[in-house]
Amino acid sequence: MPGALAATSFDASRSQQLPLPRGTVKGPESVAFDGQGQGPYSGSRCGRPLGLRFNQKSGDLYVADAYKGLMRVAPGGGEATVLVNQVDGYPLRFTNGVDVDQVTGQVYFTDSSMNYQRSQHEMVTRTGDSTGRLMRYDPRTSDVTVLQAGMTYPNGVALSADRSHLVVASTGPCKLLRHWIEGVNAGTSEPFADLPGYPDNVRPDTKGGYWVALHREKNELPFGRDSHRLAVRVGNDGKIVEEMRGSKKVRPTEIMERSNGKIYLGSVELPYVGVVKRK
What we know:
By secondary structure, the protein is mainly beta.
């Protein structure tokens, strides 16, 4: 399986800090930009927003909230509306990643476990829980389809540039999976990449691949050199082509790269959104 070591590396230890508005709970786990390029938007209130993604045409902001389910904020802002909080009679206990097909408007999202909530996320890894689900929401009909069940800690999800498949982070096993939604393999999943750490959100880069935030490396020790992998960039062939390094105090949950070369870092622990740019 592809995915060994990164070909190149860059240091992101010196980042610009975009502080959250006063009174906001720390931890902007996900960031998003609207159709006009405005942003970054982030969320740290509600239940616990873990994934944000705009429909660039309609202006709707879709939110994967760990405790409330799949939600939508209408163009212009306001209170979020719960769209999905149970599927096939089973509640969404740990809604996590989200992405939007900008052509069809369909929304893809994950529920990391049917047994544990986000507050018990360590148990999902510790027990090897494999009750996660990958789903699709159709905003035209409000129908929800389970694309795959029995998954091990599905987390972030990203639609491929050609819209033929989804790339899903499997946090506990430190892997990426590819789930086909078009072509002769539609409805099947396969290994896509082995990772050097525990992945969180997955977002497209600007070259047809993906940025994968790493909460921490495998077998990481708290002492020693104050540097670890913050994220890796994976090509469309599943090979790691670049890594981002920084302080162990920073544990990113999302990496969002913009066409201007700026890279935005979300985190569950820090009171700001980080911004770095390759030198």
